[in-house]
């Protein structure tokens, strides 16, 4: 089949317009077109008055070879790539050991799923609870201020991505179409089929909960085992080779193959690995606040008179500003029609994040407004970034009144450098609640200076972005892992054979889809190594 990309049509085009556009693009007659399917659909809203739909199409025609020859200089017409997933190996019958996967976020789930589908019967360990019990504990913090350090937004089945917008798009290079495998498995687990063709697919928290449960059932049906409330307190290592793991209960599980997919908030695990000599290095991440506006304002600014169109949904944005002090400020994890959530994983700390449901129909839009920082900003050992985060989160807890309320400030007051005393037209969505005051001490001076400069600059791109009543809520510190557990070309730790650092926590992903893709890559490498050892 032929693939046509970047085929644009008006937002309200007629049903037969796609067929006509295909004929015109390929220069063929109706009788030469056999069929077509929509592989991907998005929209281009750069011109609000002329928003267009953008299609990627797979087309079956007569005389395909002749068409390709004639259009060889057109970068938007090519052979349709093979998006099927092919397993790199299968478990041998004489398999005597089982791989261990630590963590059930997107990375750990997909590493476990692929290993199970190849017949390796993985043991998957999760320090938190199964997803429905975890949801109850998470709501306990949001609604009652009751915090569970082992069951929260960060820890538990599904990982941090469960309480997010459920974004399923990424900018990683994916020549092997692993992302398609991820989306296909999500659909099998109950996700809407439209995620297979949407240019920016998303799911939302409630749908993710049921999908995670279904994926667990699939892994178990293939011989995999998932153990909850099973925190790993030590990796058994001898002469640079992994021998297994030791649980908090004291139980030892033996294996020469351990996937470390713990997420970016497993600080005690990072400390344990560092003390055991596993090579870790500090990496850059970002810090800032969450900002909330009326979703209607964002829709109007992005879509104009087309705001509310059913094919467009709730509008998003992506912003960046390079500041005079050399810092860069950008929007992070934008959640249309969503809420700001309490995302701490440690007592006495406040952390914010954003999430949306599938419908994206809440009153406010929110995103992180964050400043990039580097290890030069937090000198010390490789775990210094982790301690830097802790300091900011503890400060936010104090500024919020030490009740898990978050400190907040109106954008107009923040720019004017004066404390806020009352909310205006925008009511914050963060629960347990927002304590208004002054955010100028919540972050380092260079970050405050950069954000103050960036907000009016963003207002020039989205009119109303710096509206006086918009709300800033602090702090956003878990944008990505503060460390990288460096690995070699075989996806193993550079100094600990058999340890496979993976996903966001290890510094190799950023978001649900990229973490899941990394889980697949690691599972493949591990499986090939297990087979090679037995041959």
Description:
- The protein is 28% helix and 23% strand.
- Helix 3 packs parallel to helix 6 (205-221) and helix 5 packs across helix 12 (512-534).
- It has 535 residues and is an alpha+beta fold.
- It is globular and about 70 Å long.
- The chain starts with a strand and ends with a helix.
- The strands form 6 sheets. The chain has a 7-stranded mixed sheet with strand order 14-15-18-13-21-19-20. Strands 7-6-5-11-23 form a 5-stranded parallel sheet, with helices on one face. Strands 2-3-1-4 form a 4-stranded antiparallel sheet, covered by helices on one side.
- It has 12 helices and 23 strands.
Q: What's the Cα radius of gyration?
A: 24 Å
**Biggest sheet details:** 7 strands, mixed
Proportion of beta-strand residues? 15-25%
Number of strands: 23
| Fraction in helix | 25-40%
What would you call the shape?
globular
Spans of at least 5 consecutive residues whose pLDDT stays below 50 are none
The helix tally amounts to 12
Q: Report, as a whole number of angstroms, the end-to-end distance.
A: 40 Å
Name the structural class. alpha+beta
Mean pLDDT level: 96
Widest β-sheet, arrangement of strands: 14-15-18-13-21-19-20
Give a quick rundown of the structure.
With 535 residues, the chain is α+β, with helices and mostly antiparallel strands.
Keywords:
535 residues, alpha+beta, seven-stranded mixed β-sheet, five-stranded parallel β-sheet, 12 helices, 23% strand
Topology, please?
Layout: E1 2-10, H1 17-26, E2 33-44, E3 52-61, H2 64-70, E4 77-79, E5 100-102, H3 106-117, E6 123-125, H4 131-144, H5 178-188, H6 205-221, E7 225-227, E8 232-238, E9 241-247, E10 252-254, E11 258-260, H7 267-275, E12 281-282, E13 285-294, H8 295-303, E14 320-322, E15 328-335, E16 339-342, E17 352-355, E18 364-373, H9 384-399, E19 406-410, H10 411-416, E20 434-436, H11 445-459, E21 471-476, E22 483-484, E23 499-501, H12 512-534
Parallel strand pairs: 5-6, 5-11, 6-7, 11-23, 19-20
Antiparallel strand pairs: 1-3, 1-4, 2-3, 8-9, 9-10, 12-22, 13-18, 13-21, 14-15, 15-18, 16-17, 19-21
Helix pairs in contact: 3-6, 3-12, 5-12
């Amino acid at each position: 089949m032929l693939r046509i990309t970047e085929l644009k049509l008006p937002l309200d085009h007629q049903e037969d317009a796609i067929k006509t556009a295909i004929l015109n693009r390929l220069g063929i007659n109706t009788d030469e077109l056999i069929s077509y399917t929509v592989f991907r659909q998005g929209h281009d809203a750069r011109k609000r008055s002329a928003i267009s739909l953008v299609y990627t199409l797979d087309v079956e025609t007569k005389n395909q070879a002749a068409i390709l020859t004639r259009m060889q200089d057109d970068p938007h017409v090519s052979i349709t790539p093979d998006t099927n997933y092919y397993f790199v190996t299968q478990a041998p019958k004489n398999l005597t050991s089982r791989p261990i996967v630590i963590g059930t976020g997107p990375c750990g789930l997909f590493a476990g799923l692929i290993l199970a589908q190849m017949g390796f019967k993985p043991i998957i360990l999760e320090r938190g609870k199964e997803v429905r019990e975890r949801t109850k504990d998470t709501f306990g913090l949001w609604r009652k201020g009751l915090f569970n350090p082992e069951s929260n937004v960060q820890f538990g089945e599904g990982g941090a991505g469960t309480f997010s917008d459920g974004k399923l798009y990424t900018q990683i290079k994916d020549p092997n179409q692993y992302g398609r495998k991820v989306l296909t498995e999500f659909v099998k687990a109950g996700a809407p089929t439209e995620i297979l063709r949407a240019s920016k697919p998303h799911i939302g928290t409630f749908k993710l909960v049921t999908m995670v449960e279904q994926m667990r059932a699939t892994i178990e049906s293939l011989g995999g085992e998932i153990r909850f409330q099973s925190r790993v307190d030590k990796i058994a290592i001898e002469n640079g080779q992994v021998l297994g793991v030791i649980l908090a209960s004291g139980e030892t599980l033996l294996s020469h193959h351990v996937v470390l997919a713990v997420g970016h908030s497993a600080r005690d695990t990072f400390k344990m690995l560092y003390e055991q000599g596993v090579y870790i290095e500090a990496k850059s991440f970002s810090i800032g606040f969450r900002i909330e506006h009326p979703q209607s304002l964002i829709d109007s600014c992005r879509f104009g008179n087309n705001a509310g169109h059913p094919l467009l949904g709730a509008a998003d944005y992506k912003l960046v500003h390079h500041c005079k002090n050399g810092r860069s400020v950008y929007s992070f994890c934008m959640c249309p029609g969503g809420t700001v959530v309490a995302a701490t994983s440690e007592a006495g700390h406040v952390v914010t994040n954003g999430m949306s449901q599938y419908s994206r129909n809440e009153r406010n839009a929110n995103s992180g407004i964050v400043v990039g920082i580097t290890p030069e900003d937090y000198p010390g050992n490789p775990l210094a970034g982790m301690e830097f985060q802790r300091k900011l989160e503890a400060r936010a807890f104090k500024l919020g009144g030490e009740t898990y309320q978050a400190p907040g400030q109106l954008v107009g007051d923040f720019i004017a450098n004066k404390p806020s005393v009352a909310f205006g037209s925008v009511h914050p969505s963060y629960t347990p609640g927002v304590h208004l005051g002054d955010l100028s001490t919540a972050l380092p001076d260079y970050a405050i200076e950069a954000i103050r400069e960036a907000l009016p600059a963003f207002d020039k791109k989205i009119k109303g972005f710096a509206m006086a009543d918009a709300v800033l809520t602090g702090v956003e510190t878990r944008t990505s892992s503060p460390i990288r557990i460096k690995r070699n070309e075989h996806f193993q730790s550079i100094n600990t054979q058999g340890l496979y650092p993976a996903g966001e926590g290890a510094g190799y992903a950023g978001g649900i889809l990229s973490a899941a893709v990394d889980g697949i890559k690691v599972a493949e490498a591990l499986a090939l190594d297990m087979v090679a050892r037995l041959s």
